[in-house]
Design a protein that fits this description.
Layout lengths: L33 E3 L5 E6 L10 E5 L3 E6 L4 E5 L1 E6 L14 E7 L5 E2 L12 E6 L2 E8 L2 E9 L5 E10 L5 E10 L6 H4 L4 E4 L6 E4 L10 E6 L5 E5 H5 L26 E11 L4 E11 L2 H10 L3 H18 L1
Antiparallel strand pairs: 1-2, 2-9, 3-4, 4-5, 5-6, 7-8, 7-13, 9-10, 10-11, 11-12, 12-19, 13-18, 14-15, 15-16, 16-19, 17-18
């Protein structure tokens, strides 16, 4: 197992902040934080470290068997089949802190600085634009010359949640970066009841993380998975390794380590976390798709991983979501 500490190779000027995108001036019924687009298809929220919504403003993304609730801060919880009895990640029910068991992180692998493409859990220096649409939510941010656009949505029919992360380099130099997705597992009603029974493993064919909870008698044989579109990835199923002793989602130990260790199995505090490393030349752009979902059996989960493993499959699903809501409304 690799627990090498992260060693910075470059130090950034803390006073040097990249300018974020221009704030929207075209919104209807703008209240100082958010407003509707002219066509009424999106509600746009603009937040920063000093300006937030008074309570979480959420979007429910769901089909008949699977769904997720995501707030303007990116905090989310996901369920399969039953929103109370088979939660995949925790429902925090905290309107003050908007806490979450799901998160995405971007790290500069030269300086060690890290932030979230969503306003939480690691708020960047510049403002965020969060757009809640019909069937999807989009989060836009610029940090230290790195532009990110995260699109979150759920398949129209299958038990799969997609997070398409588009990253662009406008810093004027080559950048070494990593992107990490993390989900704390419940696989039942409450985490305290089930977490000691969850088993995690790495699928030998796809490299995806697979989790099972044989103790859950109401939803037996179910399997949860996390996968990423990049063939080379680092993973862990150990929440203690990821968050760290006395750690927090805003400052997890994993961000101070070179990479995730690959630790999975039984008898550990379970999670699924996947990390990819990449380089971007100036003006270069890259798309990464993280998928998180559930199958009624391990074989079904593996089949979903196979079907939705690439960027093109995710794009087709997103277009189907757009077309469905355009036709429906």
């Amino acid at each position: 197992m690799n627990f090498l500490p992260f060693i910075p190779t470059r130090k950034d000027d803390p006073e040097e902040e990249a300018k974020g995108p221009a704030e929207r001036s075209d919104l209807i019924y703008f209240n100082g934080v958010g407003g509707f687009t002219g066509d009424g298809r999106e509600y746009v929220v603009i937040t920063s470290r000093s300006k937030t919504t008074p309570a979480p403003w959420v979007n429910v993304l769901a089909n008949r068997n699977f769904g997720t609730v995501v707030s303007e801060s990116g905090s989310a919880y996901t369920w399969s089949e039953n929103a109370h009895e088979f939660r995949l990640t925790p429902w925090k029910s905290d309107p003050v802190t908007d806490a979450s068991g799901e998160a995405l992180y971007i790290r500069d692998d030269e300086s060690g600085e890290f932030w979230s493409p969503t306003p939480l859990p690691v708020t960047g220096k510049t403002h965020y634009t969060s757009r809640h649409g019909f069937g999807y939510s989009v989060f836009e941010h610029t940090e230290n010359g790195i532009v990110s656009e995260l699109t979150v949505f759920v398949s129209l029919e299958e038990r799969v949640k997609f997070s398409i992360l588009k990253i662009s380099n406008i810093s004027g130099r080559r950048r070494r970066l990593s992107a990490t997705a993390y989900c704390e597992l419940v696989m039942g009603t409450f985490r305290d009841k089930y977490h000691m029974h969850i088993l995690t493993e790495i699928d030998p064919k796809s490299g995806a993380l697979i989790a099972r909870n044989p103790y859950n008698k109401e939803f037996p044989n179910r399997a949860v998975f996390m996968d990423v579109s990049e063939p080379t990835r680092f993973v862990t199923g150990d929440r203690v390794e990821y968050i760290g002793r006395n750690g927090t989602m805003a400052s997890p130990s994993a961000m101070r380590r070179d990479r995730l260790s690959g630790k999975v199995g039984a008898g550990i505090d379970p999670c699924v976390a996947t990390q990819v490393k990449f380089e971007l030349e100036d003006d270069e752009q890259k798309e990464i798709v993280f998928t998180f979902g559930s199958g009624r059996t391990v074989d079904e989960a593996r089949d979903l991983v196979r079907r939705f493993s690439g960027i093109e499959a995710a794009r087709q699903e997103l277009e189907s979501v757009w077309e469905y809501w355009k036709r429906t409304l």
